[in-house]
Design goal:
The protein is an alpha+beta fold. Helices cover about 30% and strands about 25% of the residues. The protein has an eight-stranded antiparallel barrel with strand order 2-3-4-5-6-7-8-9.
Length: about 475
């Protein structure tokens, strides 16, 4: 499958590159057009060229926000620009000034029925913010209201578990109408900046993709200390003699051995369980090897691996050569052979797509008593977390059931290449592979993978909801209370 039209597109863009003195802009456009697997599918060349011209002519000091428009255009978590943030004494002084501006509004807060202004806590229980209309801080309370989806809004830290000063601005929302925004967001824990789409839900929750979710709250000082913070450490817990909960929030490569040992150490618990609850909420992704050990308790026969079309760009080939060089230095003969074959396949399809991994995975099924397999999914389950859902749903087991809400929808374009912009040092993610979609596994990036059982917004205890669901399902109808 050749990249028809791509080289014409690049030639069309070249004059624009030559006109711009911005090395970051040139670099970003080159990586998007040459390395992003979604580019041929998603680009409207006329509109994208117009956007390039707009960014090239942008004279604002905030170059990061301007450049981010080129990545947000494609609406894909696997094509994203990140800026690093360093807190300084100047940030602290600015935060103190923000707090002094907020105090009159906070102490005399109005109750406009259409206003979003007020306190919000994030779903991780790590920070509380106060949101108010942007630029209206110097006005008396009640005069700066804007309905959802219009105008700009600022979110300021009030309380945080992270060492970030109160008053620090976490985000600015730019309204697009109908409850939709562009969010300029700074993560207070990992201190990175990203520009993404966000929306105000009918339930009052503000959701920014997989990056944040805030819901209105009644704030009292010190409230975070009374709430359990979300824990990203993998864990296996016996809820009772027949129910095992596996907390799986992180599929980073370094966790693969941790998951392996977690299931080996707890073989007896797993073998005796009848209900298995796999919690992949807030799982940003990583490698599929993290969930393969538990798949043995579910699969009923060989499975077709999730395959994809790999864009064999110069950068991807160079990345493979670098890995091969490392394996040769380590004299790792097994990986040397695999990577030589892998590299040869890419060389044959240079600057075009090749289909890979279209083969069956063996199912080494483990005998167990498991009757129910519940997978908890939320708005921040993405990438390899979503691949887990696809593998489990085609495992051949009727016991698998997804609970919660739609996943993020970041599974159509995968396998990240990463780059550092030459001037600003901003960090760029580029997805180099597009998943092969089928009638059984269609495209999900626009919608996310839907659950089989939707958990109500008002339900705070998702694990308890699942246990009650199966309790009622397993009891005879005449015994249900």
């Amino acid at each position: 499958m050749k990249l028809a039209g791509l080289f014409y597109c690049l030639l069309f863009i070249q004059p624009l590159l030559a006109q711009s003195p911005d090395a970051d802009l040139n670099f970003l456009i080159t990586k998007i057009t040459k390395d992003y697997a979604g580019y041929p599918d998603k680009v409207d060349q006329k509109k994208f060229n117009a956007l390039i011209s707009k960014v090239a002519k942008d004279t604002s000091k905030d170059r990061f926000y301007a450049l981010s428009q080129l990545t947000t255009y494609f609406k894909d978590d696997h094509l994203a620009l990140f800026g690093s943030v360093r807190l300084t004494h100047a940030d602290t002084l600015g935060s103190q000034a923000d707090l002094s501006t907020l105090r009159p509004r906070v102490s005399d807060r109005h109750a406009h029925p259409q206003s979003m202004e007020g306190y919000y806590v994030n779903d991780l229980n790590t920070c509380v913010i106060y949101m108010k209309p942007a630029g209206a801080g110097d006005k008396p309370a009640g005069t700066g209201d804007k309905p959802a989806g219009t105008g700009d809004w600022d979110g300021y830290l009030i309380e945080s578990r992270d060492p970030v000063p109160p008053g620090y601005r976490v985000f600015r929302l730019h309204g697009k109408g109908n409850g939709q925004y562009v969010a300029d967001y700074t993560d207070p824990h990992d201190l990175f900046r990203v520009v993404i789409d966000a929306s105000m839900q009918k339930n009052g929750r503000l959701v920014g993709g997989a990056y944040f979710q805030f819901e209105p709250c009644t704030y009292t000082p010190g409230m975070l200390a009374k709430k359990p913070a979300f824990n990203y450490a993998p864990a296996l817990i016996s809820l009772d003699s027949q129910t095992v909960l596996v907390h799986m929030p992180d599929f980073a490569p370094e966790n693969k051995h941790l998951y392996d040992s977690l299931f080996k150490v707890n073989i007896a618990r797993m073998d005796n369980a009848t209900t298995l609850i796999l919690d992949v909420r807030n799982n940003y992704g990583g490698v599929i090897g993290c969930f393969m050990p538990v798949l043995a308790y579910v699969c009923k026969g060989p499975m077709l691996s999730v395959s994809g079309w790999q864009l064999c760009s110069e950068d991807l080939i160079a990345d493979a050569r670098s890995d091969l060089r490392i394996f040769r230095e380590k004299k790792d003969s097994a990986n040397i052979a695999d990577y030589e074959e892998y590299l040869a396949g890419m060389e044959q399809h240079r600057d075009s797509f090749r289909l890979y991994s279209e083969n069956q995975l063996p199912c080494v099924s483990r005998v167990s008593r498991i009757r129910h397999v519940a997978i908890l999914v939320n708005h921040a389950t993405r990438s390899a977390g979503e691949l887990m859902l696809l593998y489990f749903k085609q495992s051949g087991s009727s016991s698998v059931c997804l609970f919660g809400e739609n996943s993020r929808g970041a599974v159509d374009y995968l396998d990240l290449l990463s780059f550092t912009l030459p001037v600003s040092g901003s960090y760029l993610w580029v997805g180099s592979t597009k998943r092969k979609t089928t009638a059984a596994q269609p495209a999900y990036d626009a919608t996310g993978i839907p659950p089989d059982v939707r958990i109500p917004d008002t339900e705070p205890d998702w694990v308890g909801f699942v246990r009650e669901y199966y309790r009622r399902q397993d009891r005879p109808r005449n015994q249900l209370d």
